[in-house]
Write a structure and sequence with these properties.
The chain has 479 residues and is an all-alpha fold. 44% of the residues lie in helices and 3% in strands. The structure holds farnesyl diphosphate (FPP) and zinc ion (ZN).
Length: 479
């Protein structure tokens, strides 16, 4: 009898190796008969699943999830958007009214009506509004209290560049990411808000190359008197993880215009991209694991890391760390041959885009609708969005175009004077310069498997990103 295929490992059996073997055994059963013919994407079943899940809300045994109402709505709406489905005006209005009931009178959004403001639901609520909202009375956008939200952001900022996720709560780099995205979408960026943030992000990188949730505070609070200055650099707290790594790298990407405006003497250190790239590459599972991604060393592949880890490669490319996938010249790409050439430009040796699509289509799709971590787990809305967003990032080359950035910058009539104005212009053009090179998307299987492209930093479609940013860019800046 032939030996079952499995990943090489030493002969020391542990709970971890048992779980790995069980997972591989299950995944092998999901291998498609031909690598280029994966299971088709069941869009209708996934839409039905998302609607069912949204209407049912969280089951009563999940009362701890009550603070995640904005997340449930964002996962649902953004899944619709990447699948190319728009809501009708009545449902949009229902969604807007629901979201606005989560706004806290002192700024920011809570996880439900009457709940304290928190950075994570604030991001989810604002992104959901980017999808369904509109300007004018009742449209949600102009009901966001930006002055109060800015005050809330400054009130949870620590002197070492970290942010608490809420009053009296902990520091977590997910909060930094959520705050930065919100501040970009709503035109709320100031040098004061960003001061020290790059140093905090750098301090979360671990010896493995990925990022942990936080780092030891630079200042230790004292019950009496001034805080004590601790040794610098601050050691990261905890293990490198795909979720924190995406949040850190996306935050670093958003901070690029701010770093570029700093005095050159201040641009001393950066992230360790060599270890980061090695770690990210090592998170992709072997062909036995169908090319899915794991979130940390010695753990199992899981569909949601298709976005959290797979999505990091587009960010690295925008930072010039790996070969730029996009080209700013006017090359033609209408024939299959030229498309193949363009595809060959992409450094496939770092991560296998086709394999990731195979994992999502063959293993992460639940036969009853919705997507999941891995078989035989049930589907949920969180995994549905991050599997679909991961599928999108594996299919499309969305890259930061310097040509597009130049066009936006040249369209401004007056050269900016203050650092504040320069910052907001630079962040606006940076955020809107992500673009997709024509004809380079590579869809595994049928064309119906195609997802819309999603913004590599915000995880919103380009249309939704441009709509909300253009609206708020005209507004005054909170002071
Ligand atoms: C471990 O789960 C999960 C974490 C330590 C945190 C994950 C963080 C994210 C996914 C980022 C979320 C981002 C935002 C913007 C809120 P586990 O032990 O169940 O999974 P594992 O075995 O795969 O590590
Ligand atoms: Zn997961």
């Amino acid at each position: 009898m032939s030996q079952p295929r499995r990943s090489p490992h030493d002969s020391y059996e542990t709970e971890t190796t048992d779980h790995q073997t069980e997972t591989e055994t299950i995944l092998l059963k999901h291998l498609p008969l031909s690598p280029d013919l994966p299971s088709p994407l069941q869009k209708d079943a996934h839409l039905q699943f998302l609607i069912r899940n949204l209407i049912q809300g969280f089951p009563s045994r999940y009362t701890s999830q009550d603070a995640s109402q904005p997340w449930l709505l964002y996962w649902t709406l953004q899944s619709f958007s990447v699948m190319g489905v728009a809501l009708d005006p009545d449902n949009k209005q229902k969604a807007i009214d629901t979201i606005m009931a989560w706004q806290h009178p002192d700024g920011g959004f809570g996880g439900g009506p009457g709940q304290a403001a928190h950075l994570l639901p604030t991001y989810a609520a604002v992104c959901a509004l980017a999808i369904v909202g509109r300007p004018g009375p009742g449209g949600g956008w102009d009901q966001i209290d930006r002055e109060k939200m800015y005050e809330f952001f400054m009130s949870i900022k620590l002197s070492d560049g970290a942010f608490l996720v809420a009053h009296h709560a902990e520091v977590d780099v997910r909060g930094t990411y959520c705050l930065l995205v919100t501040a970009h979408l709503l035109n709320m960026l100031t040098p004061e808000l960003l001061e020290g943030v790059p140093a905090f992000i750098m301090s979360c990188q671990t010896y493995e190359g990925g990022f942990s949730s936080a780092s030891q505070p630079y200042f230790s609070p004292e019950p009496e008197g001034p805080p004590t200055l601790l040794d610098s650099p601050r050691p990261p707290l905890g293990e490198a993880h795909g979720g924190y790594t995406f949040c850190s790298l996306a935050s670093w990407t958003m901070l690029q215009p701010y770093l570029a405006l700093q005095k050159p003497s201040l641009q001393r250190s950066s992230l360790n991209f060599k270890t980061l790239l090695r770690w990210l590459v090592q998170m992709q599972g072997s062909e036995i694991e169908l090319g899915g991604f794991k979130g940390r060393t010695n753990k199992l592949v899981d569909g949601c890391y298709s976005w959290w880890v797979g999505g990091c490669f587009a960010l690295l490319s925008s930072l010039g760390i790996i070969g730029a996938h996009g080209r700013d010249d006017n090359h033609e790409s209408s024939t299959t041959h030229q498309e193949d050439e363009a595809w060959d430009d992409i450094d496939d040796s770092l991560w296998d885009r086709a394999a990731l699509q195979r994992y999502i289509l063959c293993a992460a799709q639940h036969p009853a609708g919705g997507l999941r971590d891995k078989p035989p787990k049930p589907a949920d809305s969180y995994h549905t969005l991050y599997c679909l967003a991961g599928l999108s990032s594996a299919q499309h080359n969305v890259f930061l175009s310097s040509t597009r950035q130049d066009v936006i910058v040249r369209s401004w009539k007056t050269p900016p004077e203050s650092m504040h104005e320069r910052l907001r212009q630079a962040c606006f053009s940076h955020s809107l310069s992500w673009t997709e090179e024509e004809g380079t998307s590579r869809i595994l299987g049928a064309q119906n498997n195609r997802m819309n492209a999603t913004h590599p930093v915000f995880n919103l479609t380009m249309t939704h990103t441009e709509g909300i940013m253009a609206h708020f860019y005209k507004q005054t800046i909170p002071s």
